[in-house]
Amino acid sequence: MQLAADSKRSSTSDAEVKSLRKELEIQEQQLASNAKNGKVDLDKKVAGMKKREDAWRNRINLLTKKIERESYREVLEGYGPSPHRVKFQVDIPRDSEKDANIPEDEYPSFEIELYPIDEMPHAVHLFLEQVYHGLWDGCSFVVNAPHILQAGTYPGKGVEMTYAEKVREFERVGLDVVSYQEYNKEYPHKQWSVGFAGRPGGPDFYINKLDNTKNHGPGGQSHHDLEEEADPCFGEIVEGKDVMERMYKMSANRNNDWLLDNPVHIIKARIVDMDDVKEAKTIPHLSDMHEHGTEVIWDDDDY
Length: 303
What we know:
Cyclophilin; 5 helices; alpha+beta; 2 domains; single chain
């Protein structure tokens, strides 16, 4: 009797094992099928995303080229062909010997020659517009780090406005930042060159005290989201390097982002051979020109 019972249980157990194996095979086949279908769906979605990414990149390139051409046109029509020079007068302590020939109503100065407009049209256009509209008058050089001397929208002595108000002077006329990080490898951040600071760059600009080609060029600042970008480099110091070197020697607080102990007041900045200044008209922010602004909408149905 016991042997018969054991034989019956064994038969039942074998049947259960076969059933479980069959069920497992079915599940494995289903998983394989799902995985295959899932991979197809994933590949399709990735392909769709790649297609959209390429389309957006083409749109961006088109807009970039449009901005370049319009910047070139506006510089050519407004300021003539390259080269363009900008002269800055700065309030630094007078040197009785070096500054002996400077008239009483003028100050020590330096000149920046901007790069050709067919090479750096957008950044050059922005800087010329800032200068032409007198926006740098009353600002200051505020940072004297080991590698750069930087000017910003910090009001100089005797300027009756706050830092925020000075920034808004640039913003309200739409001349505060570049539309994209324009860069030309033929004009790197070598010593004495001039570049826009920040992302997006501007309005602050800096003088490279040494060769910053690697640090300020493409991929040089990995703390930014788009680390492959670079600071726009748009000109270089061609006159007044002795004035710059005197500014380099001024004391700065290394424990406070190398801020100058005594910021250097910019008396005025003028385009050479164009001493007049025209007040810029206030323009609305682009997003305020129409009801909702421009939105980028991602729709899963597009994949």
